[in-house]
Each structure stands twice: as C-alpha cells, then as structure tokens.
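Ticket #4471: structure export looks truncated?
Reporter: QA, pipeline team
Priority: medium

Steps to reproduce: submit the single chain below to the structure queue and open the exported record.
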Amino acid sequence: MVSLRVIIDAANVAHYKKGQNGKARLSNIIAAIKALEKGNHEFLIIADASLRHSIDQKEQYEKLVEDGIIDEVPVGQIADHFILETAEQEKAKILSNDKYRDFADEFQDIKNMRMPFTIKGDKLTFGKPKKPKKVKNLLQNVSDEILNEIERKRWEVYTEKTTQPFSPLNVAKAAILQLDQSNQKTMGTRIENAFHKVPMFKNVMAMVDDVETAAPYVIFVLVHPKDYKAAVHDAGNISVTVADRLHLINRPLIAVRNDLFVKPGEFALNIIVSDEVEDICPFNVEIRINSFDEMFVKNNSRNIASTIAARLGSWKFPYVSVKSDMLMEKPGDFDIYLEKGGKPDG
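Actual output as written to the record:
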C-alpha cells in the first residue's frame, strides 16, 4: 500500500553536504530512494539537466537517467518551477531543503508541499512539512455563504448573529419576551384576516381563542456544540416555563441545534410558527473546497447542516457533501452549490 507521493528534488538532495571535491553526491540520491522505499512511498526523481555535470559518479548517474529512474527537466524549463508545478498537479510532497522563495507568489503553499531532510552517513531522515495556517472562521464563512446563496433564491432565513449568555433561565426569559412581543402582532393580523373572511362575530372570537391556546410555535435554541447536551437536558423545563408564563395550554416545541455562529456559553433563538416549519430542508448543499481544508470541513459537515436547518426553520438537516476541487488552490478557498432539497440522488 502506497502511503505518500513524493518528488525528489535530485539536485538539492545531491548537493547536501557536498564531497571534498565539491561534487554533488549520487549516494545522497540513493539514500533518498532507500528511505522512501522503506516507507513504501511512491516517488519520482526530477533533476535539472546540469546535475550530470556536477555529480561525483557521472557514469552511474547517467545510467539511472537512461533507465528512466531519474527524469531530467525538459529543455527550456526552470527545474524548480517544473518540480513545484508537478507536485501541485500530482498532490505530492517535495523532498528538498530548498525553500523556493522565488516562486512564493505563484505557489501559495510551498511550506506544506516541501518535506525537509537530513543525511547522516548513508541514512536519510525526513523532516516534517509545515502545515498550512488554518483560515480563521472558515466554518462560519462557509455557513454564511450558504445562507447568502439561499437568500438569493428568495428563501427566508434567520440571519441574526447577536447572542446572549447561555443558561436555561436566560433561554426561557428570551423566548417569553420574543413570543410576548410577536404574539400581539400575530393575533392582530389573524383577527384582521378573520374579519375579511368570516363576518360572524362568534366565529371571529373562536379564532381568537384558538390563537391564545394553541401555542403554535417551535423555538429553535441555537447553541455552541459544547452547550448542546445542557440545552437538550433543560429543553422540557424551558418549554413548561414559557407555556406557564404566557398562559398557553399547549407547550411550545423546543428544538436544540448546534450553531456555528454561536460562541461557547452563549445562545440565540429562532422562533417560528409551527405550521411554517419545513418538514424537509428545501436545499441540499455541495461544498467544493481546497484539499487542505477538505477533512476539517467534512468533519464539521453535520454542524454546518444543523446551522442551516435551524436558520431556515427546518426539521430536517440538509444533505451536505464536501468535495476537494483542484481549482480551489489556497487554504480558505471554497465554492457553494445548492440543489433542490430532499434525499440526494443515489
């Protein structure tokens, strides 16, 4: 089983601690081959055309070139650029101590591509490539773009980012305050609509009574994943408290959701009339992202789905797929694609 793809920068490896005669060492390249074979790594050896003139064992070196074990850079191309370009295309590491500073503007993640080394005697030891810096708030950026794209499709979403300190009591207080304010508007609208539709006074009053007692609300409690269990544990108490204070016969439903815009120890509320809550999520999401962030976003895809569902007012989470895209070159690069909701194809 191949565990890593590596390009050997033959010139850089060969010139590591040159011999007494100032010649590059073929033995260094042999040491690199042995180390990579021992680790069962797939590798490619690339050398610039001038190396054959500075190597210490010229005949043996030229035979390796003739046998196709060492590839020389095509005439007219710069060896370092060719190596970097090949590594990027093949998603390979580069065994080299060269920092390739002249190409830093074109190749943004050289530190992660390059795998340093040391050689003692006939043994080569790998160093560790530096990991690319994580983009700050990447998950929030992805979620923001998904919500923006949904809004562009004229679907209403909850975009409020302000939060409050989390505690079951604070959640209940905030829910009571919001419902008490919105209930007046909701009742007024429903009564006004009733007068247009039903001219009989007793039917209007029956509708008013229904509004007062049905408690047609779902309270989406948006919390950081660290606070999820605590919020779920107290969901029943929150529901009872809200119903009691607002004199509701039917308790509101409490839906606790992980939310990527909420910090630990804080919460937000998205309160929706129950008959407006979606039974399915109207959109599935495909995230095309750079290879550096792919696993991080995949591991957090459920939190992204939870965030979107809560802010859309949907019982069901969207299906979120994460795919690496070679056109996304730098850490933090991503694109969002939405499809009609429900079960994904296949």
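Status: closed, not a bug. The export was complete when the record was re-opened. Leaving a note from the reviewer for reference: DSSP finds twelve helices and 14 strands in the chain.
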